[in-house]
Structure formats: structure tokens, C-alpha cells
Amino acid sequence: MYQQSSSFRPHGLLVFDIETIPDVVGLRRLYHWQDEFSDEEIVLWYQQKRRSERGNEFAPVYLQKVAAIACCFRWPDGNQEDISIKSIGKIDDEEQNLLQCFFGIFEKYDLQLVSWNGNGFDLPVLQHRALIHGIKAPSYWELGEKQPEFKWNNYFNRYHLKHCDLMDVLSKHQYNSRAPLDDMARLCGFPGKLGISGQDVWQLYCDGDLAKIRSYCETDVLNTYLLFTRFQLNRGKVSRQRYEEEIQLVKDYLYQQKKPHWEEFLQAWRT
Predict the structure, then answer these.
(1) Segment 199-245, tens digit of pLDDT
(2) Rounded to whole angstroms, what are the CA distances from 243 to 5, 63, 156, 186?
(3) pTM value?
(4) Any idea which architecture 11-23+59-270 has in CATH?
(5) Phi, psi at residue 24, to the nearest 5°?
(6) For the chain, what is the mean pLDDT?
């Protein structure tokens, strides 16, 4: 299901997704807001400002604070124990800790990354926020200085699949050809999103429902992995039988987790 590596570190597949909220601390710093206004008031003001100036309220990547990072790890043996889908860090971790956990993974493992719009959003956010917090990530930024095989096949070269941004690959990097994750997942027979979208994350955060944010992020990352398995079938990298075995393995894994969002996911998969 993944690309082999000659690195000395254990290798595997990492599918990832992030959820973000507006960086209120950054907004206070850039626009000199003091404590007389609440976080919600500042975000509302900024959203209205963006809407009037840009036509939408979405903040630029450097003002996106990471609220959750979900990962699907898939290891090469193909056994049940070799797949894991989870949000990294603890539920109450600060952004800096989440970033340290994420970039620390690359120091332990040589991973092929898979994402949906990771080049356009997730990785630029993570890179800007890591710079703001002073997070070290030498293996992630490796471009062949220490490991020659990374000179061409690294996380930044669009012509190799060390990082496979499925949205970019399928659209041939054409903006007008890009498809939403939810639409493609459902068109391929997978559940897609379960009633929550990225637009709901800020309100969930204000309500203190971090668990729901993490669960939503995990379902997005699983939809991405399922599309990647279909992509591998499409590329001829796996047989139809191996593809169907992988789909069943994922379903068995979800059944064993006994968590509400996975039960809802499985129910949607059956309908």
C-alpha cells in the first residue's frame, strides 16, 4: 500500500489531516487588541474584515492554529495490529505539543505521507506554526544533505510520491479540477463526512467539545486512507483481492475500537 524506502529507520505509511481554529493570540498581537474584547468577538471582527476584503472569512495559513492532528499509520506487514487511526497528543495539549508530536514522528520513522490538500493547506499550516513555536524538524526538512535518497524524493518534490497529496495528483495540480474530499469519498462508496465540516470546528472549540473535533478529524483521515487504497488499485499497485482484503481489515479494525464515531462511520458505510 505504500512506497518502500532504503532508509535505516522503520518505514510505513502516514495519512494525516489537521483541524484548525483562528489564532486569537496572533490576531491580538498583529492588530493590537487588548483584553477588553473576548476571543469570540475578535474572531468575529476578523472574519467580517476578511469577508469584506477577500470575499470569504477564511484566515491565511499562518493565522490558523492547530486544534487537532489525526493520523492513520499503516505498517508493511499487513496484519490487523499494523493499522492505527488516532489523534496525536492528549486532548488538552497545547498547539506546540501537538506540533512536536507530529514532527517528532519523522525522527523515528521514514514515512510516505498521504493527504487530501496537504500541499495547499495542512503542510503550509504545520510549517508556519512550527516556525512560530521554534519546533525542530530536521528529518522532515531533509533534502539530501544527510540522506542522499532524499535529494529528489522528499516531502517537497511534487514529481515523486514521498508525499502523495491525492487531491493534487488526481487534479494534475490544476486548481479548477480539484474535488472535495467528502464528494470523492461518497462517490467511491465510502461514508464521507458525518454531519460536521471544517466550518463547525471554531464553534465546537468555543463549546469546549475538543473530543468531537478530534473524532471528526479522524474520520477525515480515514476517508483519505480509503481513497488512497482505491488509488493504489487504480494504479495497479495492488490486486482487486488485496484491495478488498484491505477494506475488510479496516472495517474489522473499526469494529474492534468500539467508539461512537467509528460505529456511526460503519453504519453510514452500510447504507
Answers:
(1) 999 999 999 999 999 999 999 999 999 999 999 999 999 999 999 99
(2) 22, 39, 28, 18
(3) 0.93
(4) 2-Layer Sandwich (3.30)
(5) -65, -40
(6) 92
C-alpha cell at 239: 490486486
Whole-angstrom distance, CA of residue 14 vs CA of residue 111:
6
Q: Which residues pair with 85 in a beta bridge?
A: 72
Sign of the four-CA dihedral 247, 72, 224, 57: positive
Query: In the prediction, which pLDDT does 221 show?
Result: 98
pLDDT (0 to 100) of residue 271 = 63
- Residue that wins the pLDDT comparison between 4 and 211: 211
- The residue ranges of every structural domain in the chain are 11-23+59-270
Supply the pLDDT for residue 2.
Answer: 44
Q: Distance between CA atoms of 43 and 240, rounded to whole angstroms?
A: 48
Torsion angles phi and psi, residue 68, rounded to 5: -160, 145
Q: Say if CB 226 and CB 185 are below 8 A apart.
A: yes
List the beta strands (DSSP E) in 119-268: 163-165
Q: Helix 240-257 vs helix 210-235: angle between axes, to the nearest 10 degrees?
A: 170
Torsion angle of the four alpha carbons 191, 194, 200, 201, in this order, in degrees rounded to the nearest 10 = -70
Give dist(CA 142, CA 104) in Å, integer.
13
